[in-house]
C-alpha cells in the first residue's frame, strides 16, 4: 500500500516510524516547513553551556503512553537526562498568588497544614468529596473547573486546578473538558458517587489495564521504561535538548529509505474510490492512504472542497496562541529551586508561568528561565500585537518582581507560537468521535493522529500515531 504522512512534527514522524515497522515502504512524509519537529525546537548554546527550548523540554515516563515513548527513545539510542522523583525540580512546584511565591505541597504531610494561597488545610477538600453525594443527573461531560468546584470547592478550582490547566494547555479550566485531565476521576465519580469513594471501590472492582494486556509490547516492557520505574524518574529530557528526538527520527527513517520531504506543503486532498490525490505546490501525488498529523485547523482547508462538513467539524477544535520568552542570566540567581511557577488566572497577571530550566537540567553557572504568556487570554493582553522588545520587557519585569532578580537577561529569545495548543473544550470527545465517524461513513482512506485528538502531550501524540497505524487495514 502506498501511504503518505502529512506533517513532520513528532506525531507525523512517529506515524512514519510505525508504518515502516508494520508495512515497510513505499512511504513519504510531507512537511510544510524547512525543518522537522513542529513545536519541538531547541537552541543549543554549547558555547555558553545552556539550552533554550521554545516548546516542550520534559517527557513523563508514566503509564502505557510513557512506556511507548521510552521504547522509541531506546530504539533510537538517545541519551536521556532523567529527573528523579527526589530531585528538586520534581518536588518543588510553585504558585505566584496573593502577592507571594507559594510552594505547592509535595507530600501527604502537606495536606494537613494551612499552606498559602489556600486558607484551609487541603485534607478538608478531600473530606468534602467524601461527603458530597453526586446528586446531579449523570453528566456526559462538564468543565474541569465546575467538576473541581463541585467536588473540592472553589479554592481548589481556582488555585490548584486552574493553574494546572494553564501549565498543560494554556487554557481556561472553565472551558476545558473534565475528561481532558481527569477522565478516570470523572468516571469514578459518575459511577460510584465520589472521587475518593470511586478510587477505593475501583481498586476492588475494576480490572487493571497493563501494557502487556493491551498487546503493545511484543515481549516485555521496554528496558528503558523498566529503568525509569526502578530509578523512580518523575520526568526526563534528552541530552542536547528535545529537538534531538525528531532529528534522530528523521535520520532513522532516511537511513531506511523513507523520504521526508521538507518545504512540501499539502494544499488539497481529493478522495476517489482508488485512493487520495494530494496536491502539493509543484505536483499532484496519488496515494492509497493518508495519515494526517496536522493540527485540525490546518487539515480543515485541505478537505473543505469535497467534504465541507468534515472541514467544519475540524474547525470546531479551538487553538490558542502562546508567547514564549527564553532568558539567560550569568550566575546562579534563583533563591527558590524547583520546576517552576504557575500564576492562577484569578490573579489576572499577564504571564501564565515560568519554567526554571537551569534547575531541571545542568546548565553550569547560568540561570535559564522560560516565561510563558497568552494562551486563552492572549487577545486580552496582547491583542494589539506588541513588538518582541515590548514582550521581552514585560516578561523581564514580571520575572524581576516575582523572583526578585535585579539583572537584565544577557541572552533572550521571544517566540510567538500561533495556534500551538488545541483546547479540549467540553464535548471534545464527542467532536472527535463525530470526525472519525464521518471518515468511516464515507470510507475515506484517511487516518488522524497528532495533538488535536487524543491528548496534547508528547507521549499522547506518539501513541496516537501508533494506534492509527495499527488500526489500518492490512492490505
Ligand atoms: C509551548 C509548548 C510547551 C510544551 N511542553 C510540553 C511538555 O513539556 N511536555 C510534553 O509532553 N508536551 C509538551 N508540549 C506539547 C508537544 O509539544 C506537542 O504535543 C507535540 O509537539 C505535537 O506534535 P504534533 O506532531 O502532533 O504536531 P505539530 O508539532 O504541530 O506538527 C505538525 C506539523 O505539520 C506541519 N504542517 C502543517 N500544515 C501542513 C501541511 N499543509 N502540509 C504539510 N505539513 C504541514 C507543521 O509544519 C508541523 O511541523 C508543549 C507544546 C507547546 C506549544
Ligand atoms: C504555562 C504554560 C505551559 C507550560 N507547559 C505547557 C504550557 C502550555 C505545556 C505542557 N506542559 C506539560 C505538558 C504535557 C502533559 C502530558 O500529557 O504529559 C504540556 C503539553 C507538562 C506539565 N507541566 C506542568 C504540569 C502540571 C504538567 C502536567 C504533567 C505533570 O504533572 O508533570 C507544570 C508547568 N507547566 C509550565 C509551568 C511553568 C509549570 C509549573 C510549574 C509551563
From TrEMBL:
Statement: the UniProt record of this protein carries the keyword RNA-binding: no
A GO molecular-function descriptor: oxygen-dependent protoporphyrinogen oxidase activity
Domain Amine oxidase: 10-472
TM region positions: none
Cofactor: record remark: Binds 1 FAD per subunit.
Names of required cofactors: FAD
Pathway field: Porphyrin-containing compound metabolism; protoporphyrin-IX biosynthesis; protoporphyrin-IX from protoporphyrinogen-IX: step 1/1
Reaction(s) this enzyme catalyzes, per UniProt: protoporphyrinogen IX + 3 O2 = protoporphyrin IX + 3 H2O2
Biological process, per Gene Ontology: protoporphyrinogen IX biosynthetic process
Pfam families according to UniProt: Amino_oxidase
Keywords of the record: FAD, Flavoprotein, Heme biosynthesis, Oxidoreductase, Porphyrin biosynthesis
Entries under InterPro entries matching the protein: Amino_oxidase, FAD/NAD-bd_sf, Protoporphyrinogen_oxidase, Zeta_carotene_desat/Oxidored
EC number: 1.3.3.4
Source taxon at top rank: Eukaryota
Cellular compartment(s): Mitochondrion inner membrane
GO CC, any one term: mitochondrial inner membrane
Signal peptide: none
Role: Catalyzes the 6-electron oxidation of protoporphyrinogen-IX to form protoporphyrin-IX.
NCBIfam families: proto_IX_ox
Family: Belongs to the protoporphyrinogen/coproporphyrinogen oxidase family. Protoporphyrinogen oxidase subfamily.
Designated name of the protein: Protoporphyrinogen oxidase
Organism annotation: Drosophila gunungcola (fruit fly)
Lineage: Eukaryota, Metazoa, Ecdysozoa, Arthropoda, Hexapoda
